[in-house]
Amino acid sequence: MTEKALTNNKAITGLALGILSIIIPLLGLVCAIAGIFYYRSSSREIKVKGEAGINIAIAGFVCSILGLIIQFFYILALLAYYLTTTLT
Is 70 left (phi over 0), alpha (psi -120 to 50) or beta? Predict the structure, then answer.
């Protein structure tokens, strides 16, 4: 009987934060940064402990990067809007 490796909890948390960073405006920036840190931590733990979940960690990293880009453009759009409305 083979034993299944446990999925790393930090990888799951990183994926959840990555998804939230895409959905939630402004607060998603914090979620994206936290998701990237969770990816780094979980990938190290997975390599050392031999746990499962590297694909989940990578998916969380990709979602966090995508959320970071979306939040960056959202903040730029807000700044552009407020600068153009206050100057006229």
Answer: alpha
